[in-house]
Amino acid sequence: MKILISGAGIAGPTLAYWLLRYGHEPTLVEHASNLRTGGYVIDFWGAGYDIAGKMGLTPHLRDIGYFVEEVRFVDGEGRRSGGFSAEVFSEATRDRYVSLRRGDLASAIYGTIDGKVEAVFGDSIAAIEETPEGVDVSFARSAPRRFDLVIGADGLHSRVRELAFGPQDRFEDYLGYKVAAFEVPGYRPRDELVYVMYTEVGRQVARFAMRGDNTLILFVYIDEDRQMPADVDDQKAAIAARFADGAWECGPILAALDAADSLYFDRVSQIRMDGWHSDRVALAGDAAFCASLLAGEGSALAMIAAYVLAGELHRADDDHVAAFSRYEALMRPFILEKQKAARGFAGAFAPSSELGLFLRNQISKMLGIPFIAHLAIGRGLRDNIALPDYEADAA
Q: N or C: where does the chain have the smaller number of CB atoms within 10 Å of the terminal CB?
């Protein structure tokens, strides 16, 4: 089948890889002018890690990734106030865990299909019309085309979801946080392979030393207003207003922010839908079920969804209605569990009270005890989903 995929992030190229493997003809369309690189650091583990292994990517991901040694909470003077050894992550996942730039993961996945799949950058879907014979798609720049199926893998702010299912505010559950990230060269001090986090009530700023003498800075803060600043200058102003009176390294970090060329800024939300597909249109990844950036597993979930969706299309002998139904039946319980866990975890980044902050720090100190660390963290790292062996069907 000719299948149009909107979005060249994580879910889209993963889906294209598996569709191509099963004999389909995928086309990627991405509104950005080129493949996005860099970006904030993600933690990558679980079933998504296993799928990367099936795609032959894990040696490369381990080469370009980071093996974090410590998560450290500090007070306003930079003194350790809590934290734990990151060894618990590797132990709980049987060493199937790595931290890396989201853009580096996306680039690695795209490399598996580069030159093998039609990819249209700098364009976007303008209209979708489903017919019994296919989907007629209009583009912002390109000429209209017909496809057998259209898959929205275009993230939290999905254009496909809007066109096929309705406006975002019908499905978005704003969790009450804003998040921002940027990189700064030559920042000092550096703490290699350590997440360093400074938290006050309702806000947190963190840094992580990266290769090339770069440092990633991450802001998280409570904000009841879900509206987004209009442009980068307004986003920088909003962050500065929220952290201007902060202690620790907030002063030099805000100075670096002011000089930064680029900034990631978004609200922390989940997407909740009763269904992820219509007749010939389906959604994958954050477009369907965003668990929120603070869930820590969005990229892996996107890869899992793409693998299952492509596999079910293959198993159904191209009966897309049956495939979409089985895809959702397999994924939905798993995703609902992840969304529930993410809602509870979000408060650990920016506790809403002094008591919450105190308890977070005290609990983190107890994570130095292996039994408690595995009890508190290990369960959250387990992916309770049995991945079908679609590859055996394709052999």
A: C
Domains identified in the chain and CATH numbers: 2-171+270-383 (3.50.50.60)
Retrieve residue 61's tokens.
């991901």
Give 78's contacts (C-beta < 8 A, 6+ positions apart): 248, 249
Distance in angstroms (rounded) separating the CA atoms of residues 117 and 16: 8
pLDDT tens across 365-386, in order? Answer: 777 676 676 676 666 667 888 8
H-state helical runs in the chain: 11-21, 46-54, 58-64, 87-92, 102-111, 159-165, 232-243, 250-259, 286-289, 298-315, 320-346, 354-366, 370-373, 390-394
* Helix, strand and coil percent figures for the chain, each rounded to 5: 40, 25, 35
Comparing 219-233, 283-297, 340-354, which segment has the lowest mean pLDDT?
A: 340-354
Whole-angstrom Cα distance, residue 145 to residue 322? Answer: 25
Give the span between the Cα atoms of 152 and 277, in whole angstroms. Answer: 10
Burial of 241 (0-12, 13-18, 19+ CB in 10 A): exposed
Residues forming a β-bridge with 174 = 269
Beta-ladder partners of 26: 3
Where are the alpha helices (H) located in 132-285, listed in sequence order? 159-165, 232-243, 250-259
Instruction: State the sign of the Cα–Cα–Cα–Cα dihedral 345, 348, 350, 355.
Output: positive
242 pLDDT above the threshold of 80: yes
Q: pLDDT > 70: what percent of the chain?
A: 95
Mean pLDDT of the chain: 92
Q: φ, ψ for residue 13 (rounded to 5)?
A: -65, -35
What would the two tokens of residue 17 be? 């890889």
- What's at 205, amino acid-wise? V
